[in-house]
Amino acid sequence: MTRGAPDPIDRLPQAALDRLDRFADAFHLLDSGLYPAFTAASHEPEERLVALDRIQDLIGAGPRRAGILAALTEFRDFAVRSATAALGGANAVLLTRTNPSSPEERVRFLASLELAVVVVLLWDEIEEDERHDLLGPWTEMAVAAVEGASA
Predict the structure, then answer these.
(1) Structural domain contains residue 21
(2) What digits encode the pLDDT tens for the residues 5-48?
(3) How many Å apart are CA 62 and CA 16, to the nearest integer?
(4) H/E/C letters for each residue in the chain?
């Protein structure tokens, strides 16, 4: 019997996984029609690069990086599937749901989501004021996940 490789996400600390699970629960309840409201429009390109450099430094190399990248992939895949499903089926036939966002807005949304996921995972390593700057519109959902409440 061959055993598959362990899930890289399991390499993350349990406290981070618990926060991530609560954040995922809240995110899964979010209607994909609201995704454009979570676009990180508040970050200037230069500020975003500085923030991403800081996050890259915190993530480091090794097993934690693999775990975080696996978590990001799961969130990104869910968001894309959710948005795509909302545009199909009865919604498409009845024209009750449209996707008014541009490709650029969708990319910014995914970038914003990924940054929020990383901040939730690295919560204890990031100062409070920096967390709020990085999270932007995700702040309430992330704080609720950290506190163990549902958003």
Answers:
(1) yes
(2) 678 898 899 999 999 999 999 999 988 888 888 886 556 777 77
(3) 17
(4) CCCCCCCHHHHCCHHHHHHHHHHHHHHHHCCHHHHHHHCCCCCCHHHHHHHHHHHHHHHCCCHHHHHHHHHHHHHHHHHHHHHHHHCCHHHHHHCCCCCCCCHHHHHHHHHHHHHHHHHHHCHHHCCHHHHHHHHHHHHHHHHHHHHCCCC
Domain presence at residue 98: yes
- What global pTM score does this model have? 0.82
Kindly state whether residue 143 falls inside one of the protein's structural domains: yes
Q: How many domains does the chain have?
A: 1
Which residues form the domain of 143? 12-147
